[in-house]
Amino acid sequence: MSTAAGRPRPAWKVWAVGAVLVLVVAGLHVYRNTNVLTADRLCGGLVSAAKADAVLPGSGRLDAKGDGLADRLKDTVCEVEKSSVVLGSGKGTLTVRVREEDGDAPLADEAWPELSEESFFSGKVTGGVDTYEGWVLLPEKCWTTKPVIVKFGSSQRISDSTGFAALVTDTARAVAARAACGDLPEEPGTLLPPRSEAARPVSEGRVCGLDGFSVRGQVPADTEVLEAGRTTPADLWSCTLFLDDDSRGPVRADGFMTYTASRDPLLIAAVKKSPGTSKGEATDGREADVVDPQRIVLPCAQGDLYLAAESGLQYLEARKRHPDLPVRDAYFESFVKSAVKTFDCDTAAR
Questions:
Q1: What pLDDT, on the 0 to 100 scale, is given for residue 346?
Q2: How far apart, in Å, do the first and last CA atoms of the chain sit?
Q3: 3-class SS at 288?
Q4: Three-state secondary structure call for residue 159
Q5: What is the rounded distance in angstroms from the CA atom of residue 304 to the CA atom of residue 282?
Q6: CA distances from 291 to 32, 272, 288 (A)
Q7: What's the mean pLDDT in 43-47?
Q8: Residue 56 pLDDT more than 50?
Q9: What is the mean pLDDT of residues 20-33?
Q10: Is there a contact between 55 and 164 (Cβ–Cβ < 8 Å)?
Q11: Cα 197 to Cα 7: distance, rounded to the nearest angstrom
């Protein structure tokens, strides 16, 4: 290496130029591939950078697009992206929205995570996560015409359900604090994991673990019935019945009948705000809040109990082949009769 006069450049100058280049390259690496220079909270302070970084797979820098809490809660939306220039590092995106929803959407809406795949948490904070979505119900003070929910969606599969639940909970806490509509903890309570049991033959007289629950006379003759779900009461409980027949793949996967029960107070308060909910009677004649004929809230001495039954594609197909099968109301009636015993709701609230 020569100077303009043809003389060699001093070694220390060569070293200095090289050192500067190394620092520039290192600085660019730190900026583009790590979060050393990233703010602690993103999306106008709503989302913890550390918690978002922990749940999105791979390494890279976090960037956010969003202005934080909107003037109207339900207009709040922000996108957090993890990206890197390192070959093979991939890219992941978390989208957080604050939405008004029908009260029982997390339990009944097909657009929400399947209950059989969701980890649920209850107590000081109510919500759930699966491998791609998470949600937390905001306190009632945050609601206007409908319940308000903080909902996350991920472009990448999230394997850490505990970390995902902590991220969604912490974000909901920040939203409620900014909106001055309630207090939430930074961490959720213990997660109730998704049901993981393989479908198994039902026990007649104790279907889905419910005392006295039977499907005799409610399914096609000589057809084995399988169940998949929780066998003991929980704040969110669900169980699906399947006919072990020649149903096509999607029909079989949808099941014959799905039963749901919940004791979570905030979730039940949200259900009661569902459009069309009115005072009525349960199948056993006691007073109830009726969302529709197969979705009700019973007032019990130990606290309200939400009960629902949803027919699957197997039921619709079986009715075509066996028109003598009972109507949906019959399945719900037998479910309610058994569920009130198992969930300790024999005594109505006074």
A1: 80
A2: 95
A3: strand
A4: coil
A5: 13
A6: 51, 7, 9
A7: 94
A8: yes
A9: 44
A10: yes
A11: 80
Residues 114, 115, 117, 122: what is their CA dihedral angle, to the nearest 10 degrees? 130
Token representation of residue 191: 């997660």
Which residues neighbour 274 within 8 Å (Cβ) at sequence distance 6 or greater?
Answer: 102, 103, 104, 291
207: phi then psi, degrees, rounded to nearest 5? -65, 135
How far apart CA 87 and CA 257 sit, in angstroms, is 48
pLDDT higher than 70, residue 27: no
Beta bridge partners, 243, equal 225
pLDDT tens track for 118-146: 899 998 999 999 999 999 999 999 999 89
d(CA 261, CA 232): 11
The amino acid present at 240, given as its one-letter code, is T
Give the residue carrying structure tokens 């024999």.
Answer: 346
Task: Report the C-alpha gap between 70 and 67 in whole angstroms.
Answer: 7
- 86-102 pLDDT, tens digit per residue, is 545 567 899 999 999 98
CA distance 40 to 218: 57
321 neighbors 221 (Cβ within 8 angstroms): no
Contact 113, 130 (CB under 8 A): yes
Q: Which two tokens stand for residue 183?
A: 């207090």
Query: What CA–CA distance (Å, rounded) separates 64 from 3?
Result: 47
Its sign, for the CA torsion 139, 140, 141, 146, is: positive
Overall residue count recorded for the chain in this entry: 350
The pair of structure tokens assigned to 30 is 């730190």
Amino acid at 344: D
Query: Which tokens sit at 49?
Result: 């950078």
Query: How much is the pLDDT for 30?
Result: 44
Distance CA 148, CA 128 (A): 15
**53 CB contacts (<8 Å, ≥6 apart)?**
35, 62, 82
Amino acid at 304: D
- Out of 55-64, 194-203, 306-315, least confident range: 194-203
CA 303 to chain centre: 23
